[in-house]
Specification:
The protein has helices at residues 11-21, 36-39, 55-61, 66-69, 83-92, 96-99, 136-140, 159-162, 165-169, 182-194, 207-215, 220-239, 270-273, 296-306, 316-321, 372-375, and strands at residues 44-50, 71-76, 105-108, 113-116, 121-122, 152-158, 175-179, 199-205, 245-250, 256-257, 263-265, 281-282, 286-289, 311-315, 341-345, 350-352, 365-366, 376-383. The protein has 390 residues and is α/β, with parallel strands linked by helices. The chain is globular and about 65 Å long. It starts with 10 loop residues before the first helix and ends in a 7-residue tail after the last strand.
Length: 390
């Protein structure tokens, strides 16, 4: 199992460097490969998060390209390495241990429900929760990063999710820019950079993730998505009037492929399901199990006997002791959001626990597990004043 390096090698440490460079302060150490002082050399900072872009994928398919030529190194994601847990780390500058979002499906005791975190609606269906009653900020108990930094801020998001409850909650004072196409993404970033004065622009692009889920992590469609992104970045660099710009490119997680025959269906294991007090939460590659206290022994025995070849069973106490989710003081409800155990899937297995009303689906590319491919993301530095940029 590949775990985050919160001492200086994770995406949380990257955010500590950015926050420090822009006048804020983080309890986390700065990133070893990019200290705050290096970022502070430039007035205009862009962080482009490419959903799903793993370091292994970049090195395999784009060696010698613009992104690879300007690769500073690799960073570890968070646990689980998934958008619903990593994006809050980018937007708050804190690890899951502090922000408390622990996967696509997270159980929140405060509202007595499991939510799909980013759409911010109940897992069983229905519209997003009304933000005037329950806000993601109330569940996170952390201010947005944009409120702690001393720079004009911009948030560049796909139009279809730009004004979601989740994004608005963490927008703070940042100006929100929506885009429809890849061309418009770079157009909006360019317009944000054209504004006078120091600035921080956070931009998010999800199309590689969509292609990898549907066709596979290394499919032609996935490769073409990154090729298009790389070409758009090259155009943005060529069009910049100011050289006082540093563009950082990273990701929330990487990918592996998992064919249908590698799916463990909880419905095929009724004795295991009987031990649970609620459906599995988290991710299909790292699922959190809430076990009836009188059935913990039975649960452990079954997992190790019947599923030992495809999953490792890890207790909540071990995960917290080993610092899987971050350093320092924990969110007051954090331990309730990771169940009693984690089912950490081996190789390219995944586990599914469908609830009534959900439509079962299969994804070719998956993430959320603790393989190096899923956990390790690139950090690319595009410094317009660097003579080797090209």
């Amino acid at each position: 199992m590949y775990l985050p390096d919160f001492q200086g090698g994770s995406i949380v440490n990257l955010m500590a460097s950015i926050e420090g460079a822009l006048g804020g302060g983080s309890p986390y150490p700065e990133a070893g490969i990019l200290p705050a002082a290096r970022i502070a050399e430039r007035q205009k900072i862009v962080l482009l998060v490419v959903d799903g872009l793993g370091l292994e994928f970049l090195e395999r398919h784009f060696a010698g390209g613009l992104l690879h030529r300007n690769l500073a190194g690799g960073l570890s994601s968070v646990v689980p390495p998934t958008t619903a847990t990593a994006i809050p780390a980018f937007l708050t500058g804190r690890a899951p241990l502090q922000h408390g979002f622990t996967g696509w499906f997270t159980w929140f005791r405060e509202i007595g429900a499991t939510l799909t975190v980013l759409p911010f609606n109940p897992r069983h269906g229905g519209p997003p929760l009304s933000e005037d009653r329950v806000s993601p900020l109330q569940l996170a108990r952390i201010d947005p990063l944009f409120e702690r930094i001393r720079a004009r801020s911009h948030l560049v998001m796909p139009e279809r999710i730009a004004y979601s409850v989740f994004n608005r909650a963490f927008q703070g004072p940042a100006r929100l820019w929506g885009y429809e196409t890849l061309y418009e993404l770079f157009q909006e970033i360019g317009q944000a950079l054209a504004r006078p004065g120091p600035s921080y622009t956070y931009a998010y692009w999800p199309e590689y993730d969509a292609a990898a889920h549907a066709q596979g992590a290394h499919s032609p469609e996935a490769v073409q998505a990154i090729a298009g992104l790389q070409a758009g970045l090259a155009r943005l660099l060529a069009e910049q009037a100011s050289e006082d710009v540093l563009i950082l490119v990273t990701a929330d997680h990487g990918f592996i492929d998992s064919p249908p025959e590698r799916t463990i269906r909880l419905e095929d294991h009724p004795q295991l399901a009987e031990c649970l007090v609620m459906p599995l939460t988290g991710e299909s590659r790292l699922a959190f199990a809430y076990v009836h206290p009188q059935m913990q022994g039975r649960f452990e025995d079954y997992v190790r006997r019947e599923l030992g070849d495809c999953t490792e069973l890890v207790s909540r106490e071990r995960m917290l002791r080993e610092g899987w989710f971050g350093l320092g003081e924990a969110h007051p409800y954090f331990h309730q959001r990771i169940g009693h155990y984690a089912l950490v899937m081996r190789d390219n297995y995944k586990i599914k626990d469908w609830i009534l009303g959900e439509h079962p689906y299969q994804q070719q590319g998956v993430h959320g597990g603790l393989s190096p491919q899923e956990m390790t993301v690139p950090l690319v530095m595009l410094d317009l004043q660097a003579p080797e940029l090209g």
